[in-house]
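Researcher: Sequence recovery benchmark, item below. Answer with residues only.
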């Protein structure tokens, strides 16, 4: 099983978006439907979702108008309104506005081995099982000579990815007391702008700090020689560096002490701490050169062990069902994403898809 792949030929934002929207129309429409169902279970009706989506799009337009133009292009290609495509790009903000949360989510490992050796990265991407057909792999050139490759959701401008400047991005959701129902710049647009523009961790931090957000996330940025977990909240942005051993691990709770005081996710869903402990206990394998070895280091199932590799409980409503939909590693020297469809328990040497 593999995810669909699309390579843009257009470089102007609206034209690039229209090309994508035309080619992936069915997946984008299905993704919007899946999120609409999720929002409905969270108590957000169609009129409220549209209002939140339009506001998030307006905030994104004020911050990065060329990205809003690309969203408009996707909508034009897919036969939709821009606010509908903005639903997917602002799904984190809409979920925060609806005060929706769940037990699952992602686990990320980045190791800088030093000695001129490339970074070793891997993460699980956990999400609701009814959205397992949402992911796509997308290659684009936001400007001549600069390539971005991203694992994202159909209609969303970016998520996890690499760029030809040698910078990579991992992505995890967070929840903070200051998250609000006043949608700000979508965090997925921040990830895309980092991939489009940043060549260093400092530049990525500057982009994150320039956005006014309403929902929290952590974007872990890595280059050949540096890494940082950029924890983004309405209360501010914190930068968490690797330890002295070059290890940087992140699940779904804040590592910065000041932001951790406003922690929401982990206070009643403590499995994120169990997952963090599992990563720490397996650092030696997570630092390995072989991606399959790193992925298998993530293999742990609940309830007896840390639920790093998640499988849905089909007795639960869809907003409480979580599945590891992808396992992803970054190859910065080659500017490549390596993606396995599903969790670590099904990873083999032959199941990797590369972009």
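Model:
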């Amino acid at each position: 099983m593999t995810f669909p792949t699309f390579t843009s030929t257009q470089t102007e934002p609206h034209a690039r978006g229209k090309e994508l929207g035309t080619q992936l129309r069915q997946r984008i429409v299905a993704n919007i439907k899946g999120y609409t169902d999720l929002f409905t279970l969270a108590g957000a009706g169609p009129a409220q979702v549209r209002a939140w989506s339009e506001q998030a799009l307006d905030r994104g337009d004020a911050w990065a108008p060329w990205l809003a133009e690309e969203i408009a292009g996707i909508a034009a290609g897919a036969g939709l309104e821009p606010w509908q495509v903005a639903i997917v790009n602002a799904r984190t903000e809409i979920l925060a506005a609806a005060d929706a949360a769940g037990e699952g989510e992602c686990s990320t490992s980045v190791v800088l081995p030093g000695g001129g050796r490339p970074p070793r990265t891997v993460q699980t991407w956990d999400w609701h099982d009814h959205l397992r057909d949402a992911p796509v792999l997308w290659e684009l050139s936001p400007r001549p000579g600069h390539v971005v490759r991203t694992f994202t959701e159909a209609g969303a401008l970016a998520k996890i990815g690499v760029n030809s400047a040698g910078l990579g991005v991992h992505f995890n959701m967070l929840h903070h007391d200051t998250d609000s129902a006043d949608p700000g710049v979508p965090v997925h647009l921040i990830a895309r702008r980092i991939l489009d523009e940043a060549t260093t961790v400092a530049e990525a931090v500057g982009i994150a700090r320039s956005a006014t957000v309403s929902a929290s996330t952590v974007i872990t940025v890595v280059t050949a020689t540096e890494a940082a977990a950029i924890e983004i909240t309405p209360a501010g942005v914190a930068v968490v560096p690797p330890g002295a051993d070059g290890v940087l691990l992140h699940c779904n709770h804040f590592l910065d002490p000041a932001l951790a005081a406003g922690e929401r996710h982990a206070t009643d869903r403590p499995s994120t701490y169990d997952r963090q402990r599992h990563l720490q206990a397996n650092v030696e394998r997570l630092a390995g050169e072989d991606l399959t070895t790193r992925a298998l280091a993530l293999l742990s199932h609940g309830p007896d062990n840390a639920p790093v590799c998640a499988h849905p409980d089909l007795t639960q409503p869809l907003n409480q069902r979580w599945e590891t939909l992808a396992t992803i590693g970054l190859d910065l020297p080659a500017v490549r994403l390596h993606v396995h469809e599903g969790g670590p328990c099904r990873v083999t040497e032959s199941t990797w898809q590369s972009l």
